[in-house]
Design a protein that fits this description.
Blueprint (H helix, E strand, L loop, with lengths): L7 H7 L6 H12 L3 E2 H12 L4 H13 L4 E3 L7 E3 L7 E5 L5 E4 L25 E4 L2 H27 L1
Helix pairs in contact: 2-3, 3-4
Bound molecules: zinc ion (3 copies).
One zinc ion binds next to loops.
């Protein structure tokens, strides 16, 4: 695996991109908060640089993604998300309830890690894997809520029996 090197300046140099304040700020935002949406990145960049147009942020994101400095994932029903962890074939766990995104290493390591039952003559280079489910916090929350509900039902039943 390639040395990650998460210093924004070295990422830009490695990708052959000119170092600009906008690009640096975008990279800082993504390093600090992986899997951010463009809107979240825009907010972080604005906090760092002050006034900056939406278009400037989107241009920086496009250039960084195109040069491989950022990886863009597009989960269903969610805006695109960006991360600096590029060059490996890692996958994502996404919580259906709160939208939390967590990295998970590929069990195989190299793309495509799933073999198509029929490639129909395609030269396949990637299998997109997203694991959908609920994160531990959301599972815990539902379990607690159900438990409480069960308790009050029981109590209600007891009261009914007494009458
Ligand atoms: Zn969740
Ligand atoms: Zn990721
Ligand atoms: Zn995999």
């Amino acid at each position: 695996m390639r040395e990650p090197g998460t210093e924004p300046e070295s990422i830009l140099r490695r990708c052959g991109l000119q170092v600009t304040a906008q690009r640096l700020a975008v990279l800082h935002a993504v390093v600090a908060e992986p899997h951010s949406t463009a809107e979240e990145i825009e907010q972080a960049v604005r906090t760092r640089l002050g006034a900056i147009s939406k278009q400037a942020v989107y241009d920086a994101l496009a250039a960084l993604t195109e040069r491989g400095a950022l990886r863009r994932i597009e989960p269903a029903r969610s805006p695109a998300r960006y991360e600096c962890r590029v060059g490996d074939n890692h996958h994502h766990l996404i919580c259906r309830s709160c939208g939390r995104v967590v990295d998970v290493d590929c069990a195989l390591g190299t793309a495509p890690c799933l073999e198509a039952s029929d490639d129909a003559g395609f030269e396949i280079d990637e299998a997109e894997v997203i694991y959908w489910g609920r994160c531990p916090e959301c599972v815990k929350e539902t379990t607690t809520r159900t438990a409480t509900r069960g308790m009050s039902d029981e109590r209600r039943a007891r009261i009914r029996k007494k009458q």
